[in-house]
Amino acid sequence: MSKLETLIRQLCPEGVEYKPLSELFDTRNGYTPSKGNLEFWTNGTIPWFRMEDIRENGRILSKATQYVSRSAVKGDLFPENSIIVATSATIGEHALITVPSLANQRFTYLMLKDQYKDCFSAKFLYYYCFKLDDYCKACLNQGNFASVDMKKFAKFEFPMVPLEIQREIVRILDNFTELTEKLIAELTARKKQFQFYHKQFFEFKKSDCIQIVCIKDICELLTGYPFDSSQFTATGIHLLRGMNIKRGILDYSESNNRYWNSVQGYEKFLLSTDDIVIAMDGSLVGKSYAQVKSNHLPSLLVQRVTRVRVTKANAHYIYHYISSGAFTRYVEKKKTGGAVPHISLKDIANFKIPLPSENMQKEIADSLDRFDALCNDLTSGLPAEIAARQKQYEYYRDKLLTFKKRS
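The chain above was modelled as a monomer; its predicted structure follows.
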């Protein structure tokens, strides 16, 4: 019998009591200080967390990618060891914040009430909130904008597990998390190795007869239409927005998906297979690009995204050159600063590309398509292997966090 099983048998053989979220936590929404007040965003010392922080740096956070000044704070900061839970837009994400902080309005803060601070380990609550994430996905308001039904949110129950059991579960999950992350890191290192070879394909010799052209010379460029969010529909034509573009992959998962009821009048903005789409703003500007596949269609292009339709070259070659790192480096030099970095259509149009012969373009594109399948194919490549490891981890985490409810 494991130590955990022994503890459960000794300390709570009849099960555990559950209490609703509203009884255990004080809750408040985050907010965004006015972007129009430069004082709020200059020489900031207070971390202001967004979804990008979780995507870039994980779920246990002490540093943010953006900071605000003390003058931007309304009242008190949210206390350390609070948990932020995404309750609008991208549902199903949370993080443990280990420092006093702010977050944007997409997050609801969970702050443990004083009378329960000695009853819980912050790390145990962090792990248990993976169950809360799943619950939130099943408790959405009906409408065009994804948001959690906060009345149901308040009723989510947490188990009153003895602290000794909490600490043992945290120990097990910390170790399991570390092992899983090491395995995923090894797989990711292999992926980076492939990406290194990717760059080598674009180191041409003088004898290769290379032309240097701008994207605008060989492609048609178009920015999207400002569709009215109040008219989004529950089903219909996909709307491709910047948040759907994630480092070479188009993500149409339910929480990110928006629809339009008809293409009539918007035919100009319909995407086609092999179109390249580039997000023009956001913290990942210069890294958010992807190539459209047939399974992404039909889709309509939304504002702040550029469509690059290749007309005088091999579309796959052009996409692979963009994803080689050259475009990211170019955008780093050209993007505007501020709270929301931005690249202009003019600068995208002037991005220069080395263009070899048609045969060489095809050879490079075919080779890199095979590399791309190995690195990025969701059914048979490295992502599939990583996803399998992640799924196994989530299964055992859920088992460890499932407790008998005391009658």
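The radius of gyration is 24 Å.
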